[in-house]
Amino acid sequence: MSYRKINIWTRLDWTTLIIYFVLIIAGWFSIYAATYDLENKSMVDLSGRAGMQMIWILTSLAIGFSLLMIESNWYEIFASWIYLIIIILLVITIFVAPDIKGSRSWLVMGPVRLQPAEFAKFATALMIAKVMSVYKFDIMNFRNMTLMLGLIGLPIVLILLQKETGSALVFMAFFFVLYREGMPGGILFAGFAAVLFFVLAIRFDTMWGLTPVGHFLVLSIIVLCIFGLLYSSRKRNENVKFLLYACLGVIALAGIVSLFVPFNLVWVALGFIMVASGYLFFLFFKYRTTAYLWIVVFAVLSVGFLYSIDYVFDRVLEPHQKIRIEVALGIVDDPSGAGYNVNQSKIAIGSGGFFGKGYLNGTQTKLKYVPEQDTDFIFCTIGEERGFIGTITVLILFAVLILHLILMAERQHSAFNRIYGYAVACILFFHFLVNIGMVIGIMPVIGIPLPFFSYGGSSLWAFTILLFIFLRLDASRSDRL
Question: Is residue 153 located within the same domain as residue 277?
Answer without folding.
Answer: no
